[in-house]
Amino acid sequence: MSQSHVPDHAELPPPSLEEVSPGIFAYVQLDGTWFLNNCGFIVGKQSAVVIDTTSTEKRAHAFRETVRHTTSHPVQALVNTHSHGDHTHGNYLFSPETAIIAHDLCRDEVARQNIEATQARFPMGDFGHPIPTSPMVTFPDRLNVFVDDLRVELSFVGPAHTTNDVIAWIPERKVLFSGDLVFNGGTPFALAGSIAGWLEQIPRLRALGAETIVPGHGAVCDASVFDTIESYLRFVQSTAKRGFEAGVPPLELARSIDLGEFAALGDSERIVGNLHRAYSELRGEPRGTVLSPAAFTEMIEYNGGQPLRCLA
Ligand SMILES: [Zn+2]
């Protein structure tokens, strides 16, 4: 596989390709911090389907080359699990030959992407110049995609991490591509979605009976990962309720609390964004309501004014 184009950070391993089930590949980019996401692809007898892309121009090319080196089959479809740039910036390298599929709400979000603004917000990263490319097939709730005879079930599970989250479940292999409903080892992030909505989805995700989960960020894992996510989101909810009732603003509340067991999760500044989302829900606003950019700026303040860790 080609890793020579990917930035070299002494603290990071190169991306790795794991065949988690025959013909089902996870492309894992540790350590899973901001914009270091996972994606993957499924290779059948005659065709292939890709699930998500990566964040920067260099990383997107490295992933595309890895797909090419692994299979010469045409990539008939690319599924976006949600609109965030780490999962969609590489869409343009598959278009127009490949049908890009996503939730209805993902299409407009991708069309609104402003990569210059992302670069300014994450100055540690080197995003290059990917061309925002929107999905061409969208669906509201469920859609099945077939890789030859292998059924891949796409289901809307938002608003949770975003307004437009989709999972890809392969029942015959008990493999789940969870998108960013699973951060393995990182702090769950609901600023653009819903804490309550995410919590509602966890029993449904558990009920699938997945034996292998390719998370949106972090190492390939099993269903025990849901325990940490669920308890973190409940911690955010209960903390927010106390702070909201006491009239304490989210940043001040975040600075005053002990994250306890969750301090070990990466990118802990997300507590601030998550509290903003929980406060929105306590105000009775619709799930996924767009919040002020201040919620993001305050994460940087919580981080001591330093740019957020982005090694992409
Ligand atoms: Zn995301």
Low-confidence stretches: none
Overall CATH class: Alpha Beta
User: How many discrete structural domains?
Assistant: 1
Task: Output the radius of gyration.
Answer: 18 Å
Share in helix: 25-40%
Which architecture per CATH? 4-Layer Sandwich
CATH superfamily: Ribonuclease Z/Hydroxyacylglutathione hydrolase-like
The dominant shape is globular
**Succession of helices and strands:** EEEEHEHEHHEEEEEHEHHHH
Strand content: 15-25%
CATH topology call: Metallo-beta-lactamase, Chain A
Features:
Metallo-beta-lactamase, Chain A; single chain; alpha/beta; 7-stranded mixed beta sheet; binds zinc ion; 312 residues
Give an overview of the whole structure.
- The chain starts with 15 loop residues before the first strand and ends in a 10-residue tail after the last helix.
- Strands 1-2-3-4-5-6-7 form a seven-stranded mixed beta sheet. Strands 8-9-10-11-12 form a five-stranded mixed beta sheet, covered by helices on one side.
- It contains nine helices and twelve strands.
- It is globular.
- α7 (250-256) packs across α8.
- β3 (39-43) and β4 form a beta hairpin.
- The protein has a single domain (16-302), classed as Metallo-beta-lactamase, Chain A, CATH 3.60.15.
- It is 31% helix and 21% strand.
- With 312 residues, the chain is α/β, with parallel strands linked by helices.
- Bound molecules: zinc ion.
- The site of zinc ion has 5 residues, from loops.
- Zinc ion binds next to loops.
